[in-house]
Design brief:
Structural class: mainly alpha
Strand content: under 5%
Number of helices: 2
Number of strands: 0
Oligomer: single chain
């Protein structure tokens, strides 16, 4: 009977040791699984953070490009306005500068008309030369 009891206790002890080893192994596996999950979560967070940073950088670059385009457009408008103002000033100066000769107010013939138009063209060429050189002085 003693040997049956010893065998039973041996089996129980072996089962208990086996159970404890299994519990230890499962605890270790659980620990490793949690570590892997944490590592995956950390990698996911890092990827998400990198993605957000890339989006911010792309948005910043787009914003900067828009600002540059706005500045260029404003500069082009300013230059166009300056050019238009200069064109208007020059046209006004031409209007004040050129006085149609009395005999060219009414054409007498085709030849007379050509002579008057040539006179005006010559005066315009002289005006452009003097105006562009800055030598032109008009009384107000």
């Amino acid at each position: 009977m003693k040997s049956v009891l010893q065998i039973t206790l041996g089996i129980l002890l072996a089962s208990l040791v086996t159970l404890l080893v299994r519990i230890g192994y499962l605890s270790y596996v659980e620990y490793r699984v949690k570590q892997e999950i944490n590592e995956i979560a950390l990698q996911q967070q890092q990827r998400e953070k990198a993605h957000q940073q890339a989006v911010k950088e792309r948005q910043l670059a787009e914003y900067q490009q828009q600002q540059i385009a706005i500045q260029r457009a404003a500069e082009q408008r300013r230059i166009a306005q300056q050019n238009e103002a200069a064109r208007i000033r020059k046209a006004e100066a031409w209007r004040k500068y050129y006085i149609v000769p009395e005999d060219c107010k009414n054409y007498k013939s085709d030849e007379h008309m050509v002579n008057c138009l040539n006179h005006k063209a010559d005066a315009k060429a002289e005006f452009d030369r003097v105006y562009d050189s800055g030598e032109l002085v008009l009384s107000k």
